[in-house]
Amino acid sequence: MIRFEPSFFLERNREIDDVTLRAIAREVRKDILKMTTAVNSGHPGGSMSAADILVTLYYYKMRHNPENPKWEKRDRFVLSKGHSSPALYSVLARTGYFPLEKLKEFRVLEGDLQGHPSMLTTPGVEISTGSLGHGIGAAVGMALALKLDRSDSRVYCMIGDGEAQEGSVWEAAMAASHYNLDNLCVILDNNNLQIDGPVDEVMSIYPTVEKWKAFGWHVIEINGHDFKEIRNALDEADTVKYKPTMIIAKTVKGKGVSFMENRAEWHGKALPPDLLREALKELGEVT
Fold it and tell me: By C-alpha distance, which of 113, 126, 117, 112 is closest to 70?
């Protein structure tokens, strides 16, 4: 297992190569599938599309402290698409917020790792999320509070493309622009699939670039599975002044497992044990 000392995470823009990031993301994807299959519940598809971005945020970009989750100087992350909690839990465990063994508590009654992130039970979770459209509003509030405190901490938030159909997302977008929140970076996990099918068929959110620009945001488009593009976009967001940044990350639902990729049925359904073995083999696990 790839481990880093807690002090590694105390500064931004850490020295870490794409090969290492890719290897960590592969382990995160294994965790996602094992966690959801163990309880026959959860949302593996969107968790896997988000994995590369979360790994880059926590291992490369964000300033945070696994030994002190409430460290005042930390950057904040909000998983607005809270159903993708398996990806977040894996990254939190692997960066040292809690032992990997605790991943076995995912969706277990009275366990610390609930189906959607809970700030009351899970170290490293900034705010409880799950009701789509609410997390980005909380992130805007955090960014505004940090501005008022003259803090140099930054706020990162991930939303889903199905989630972008919620009106509260656009209220938050308007507020972030109005208050010139250049310490806010939102990432849209644009895998174009939601529980009922393709986003552009259920309720189209396109054209996304034009819409976010019209709301006063600095917009960057990337391949959400290319670590160089992810890092460059996050670095660019640091340089933007007087505007919040939206990173539109083109991703693949179920990324990493061939029979799960671009399949809406894996949005909220766990793999059965036989398919889990096949998936883990594709991800390089020797059984």
Answer: 126
